[in-house]
Amino acid sequence: MGDTTITTTTEPEIRKGLAGVYADYTAVSKVNAETNSLLYRGYPVQELAANCSFEQVAYLLWHGELPTATQLEELQHVERSFRSLDPEIKQVIDILPTSAHPMDVLRTAVSAIGALDPHADDSSVESNLAKSVQLLAQIPAVVAYDQRRRHGLDIIEPNDELSYAENFLYVTFGEVPDKVVVDAFNVSLILYAEHSFNASTFTARVITSTLSDLYSAVVGGIGALKGPLHGGANEAVMHIFDEIGTADKAADWLAGALAEKRKIMGFGHRVYKNGDSRVPTMKASLDTLVEYYQRPDLAELYDNLEEAMTGGKNIKPNLDYPSGPAYHLMGFDTPTFTPLFVAARITGWTAHIMEQLAANSLIRPLSAYNGVDERHLER
Ligand SMILES: CC(=O)SCCNC(=O)CCNC(=O)[C@H](O)C(C)(C)COP(=O)(O)OP(=O)(O)OC[C@H]1O[C@@H](n2cnc3c(N)ncnc32)[C@H](O)[C@@H]1OP(=O)(O)O
Ligand SMILES: O=C([O-])CC(=O)C(=O)O
Fold first, then answer.
1. Under a CB-based contact definition with an 8 Å cutoff, are residues 109 and 162 in contact?
2. N- or C-end of the chain: fewer Cβ atoms within 10 A?
3. Are 347 and 57 in contact (CB under 8 A)?
4. Which tens digit of pLDDT belongs to each residue from 118-140?
5. CATH no. for 233-330
6. How high is the pLDDT of residue 11?
7. Known catalytic residue: 146?
8. Membrane-spanning regions, if any (predicted)?
9. Bridge partners, 44 (sequence order)
């Protein structure tokens, strides 16, 4: 018998939420709560955010090394060639109500992209890499298409002269904003790209472990990311800011919310208990945006809520806390924030899908039964 033999005499150790459990190895990234650091393929994420484009980081996550100039050019060429949405995908989006949450629209669109791909079930590395680049290129088109149709605006076709970040902003807003905005967006994408066995990546790996296809794993990842305890928190932060109103009300609002045992979105983390390694970098980008858009009121509200939360419960902000207001300042509407997280995390998810396939083992833990004792039908 293998090591999954169930012994009924000893009480199994249950780790709720798999907290503290090592499920497998990964070479994609290292989250170190003790040193408060995050490495992508060995590189500190802060260094990557300060010096690289999101496309370079995507390549790094997929291939394990940063691209040479030629490799980057090739990636950019392919990514730019996939940016337009097929008419069938536009039709699929169009039949969804504009009241549908953008995460539901994106999940549906990715599922449709998979159903239209005749090679969906080809799980070779070459095919999965090609699918990963295609999804990288098309997610911005879906997100922008949906935000614009919700606001009754004309759809803007992509511009393949532009970088990934520039084009994303262009197809959403109809113009490329100033460099300070593009840079902040690029930084946010890099910071959101990868974070080891978080809930959505683990979901994608579980699906992959059954030898299902890459699209199914990504659709599952999107579903897991939508929840407010995970990616949905960046949207929820903005709802909290709206609820609080002005900076002077932050402390009282927090006292009331904590008294009602509410979870304060954008704070806390399963792994980092002493602050999220990515927050200082994203906060610096938020500061540049606050300055650029002249919104000291938003910065004051941000600071006051953080001060009240760290002073009271000593729970620190996670990446969603600075990202939410940063995306708001850039002009994205609030329900679009979590799809922006998807646009970045598609790189990490697909890197993990390929890693899982390279050394696969079906992910299937045990459960300890605590239902009624064995019983029988009365006949
Ligand atoms: C990019 C990301 O996905 S980062 C995560 C984004 N999610 C959020 O911001 C949602 C808000 N945060 C949370 O709900 C949690 O901090 C989680 C889900 C992220 C992590 O949760 P866990 O590791 O399970 O921590 P847990 O829930 O056990 O919290 C420990 C204690 O801190 C409290 N706590 C943790 N986070 C918060 C919070 N944001 N607001 C209020 N209390 C909190 C818990 O209530 C608990 O208190 P207790 O011991 O008195 O019961
Ligand atoms: O690691 C986690 O649990 C959540 C997170 O911060 C991420 O996915 O970026």
1. no
2. C
3. yes
4. 999 999 999 999 999 999 999 99
5. 1.10.230.10
6. 87
7. no
8. none
9. 39
Active site residue 328: no
pTM of the predicted protein model? 0.96
Give the model's confidence band at 313: pLDDT under 50 very low, under 70 low, under 90 confident, else very high.
Answer: confident
Listed by start position, the domains of the chain span 29-224+344-358, 233-330
Looking at per-residue pLDDT, the higher value among 262 and 5 belongs to 262
Distance 143 CA to ligand 2 centre (A): 22
Query: Ligand 2, closest atom to CA 225?
Result: 8
Residue 266: nearest ligand to its CA? 1
Which CATH architecture group holds 29-224+344-358?
Orthogonal Bundle (1.10)
- Which H or E run contains 29? strand 29-32
Closest C-alpha residue for ligand 1 atom 25? 270
| Structure-token match 């039709």, residue found | 91
Ligand 1 neighbourhood includes 233 CB (under 6 angstroms): yes
Using a 10 angstrom Cβ sphere, with 0-12 exposed, 13-18 middle and 19 or more buried, the burial of residue 343 is buried
Number of residues that this document lists for the chain: 379
> Strand, coil or helix: what is 274?
coil
The answer to whether residue 178 scores a pLDDT higher than 80 is yes
pLDDT value, residue 378: 94
- Residue 45 contacts residue 191 (beta carbons within 8 Å): yes
Q: Is the pLDDT of residue 4 over 60?
A: no
Q: What is the predicted ipTM?
A: 0.98
